[in-house]
Amino acid sequence: MVRRRGLDDRPIPAHPYRDTALVYGGMASVLVIVAALTGGSVLRAMAAAAFFFLLATAWSWSKFRTRIRQREAASAAAAAQQARGGAANGKTNGKASGLASGNGRGSAES
User: Fold this and answer.
1) Domain that holds residue 33
2) What's the total number of domains in the chain?
3) pLDDT single digits (tens) 15-62
4) Which of the two ends of the chain, N or C, has the fewest CB atoms closer than 10 A to its terminal CB?
């Protein structure tokens, strides 16, 4: 999996699901309006807009759900580490992590 820089570092909106539905609903509405203004088939435009709305909304909701779960898991792991007296107290159980003691790429090579 290729991770693009900074994508997972973005803040999650306060209402990601509602906001996504509103944005894609607006885009679907614009599609129908443009079809009506240009003399196109409004029925076909409504079908295409509904398909677009459902597909795009489902995709975005899936991505938000994944990001929220990943952040919750990372927060829980950090809280568990801190509760065990880990990195916050300078204890590492005798193991050095690759990122903390290496070149930033997960290995200790220079």
Assistant:
1) 16-86
2) 1
3) 999 999 999 999 999 999 999 999 999 999 999 999 999 999 999 999
4) N
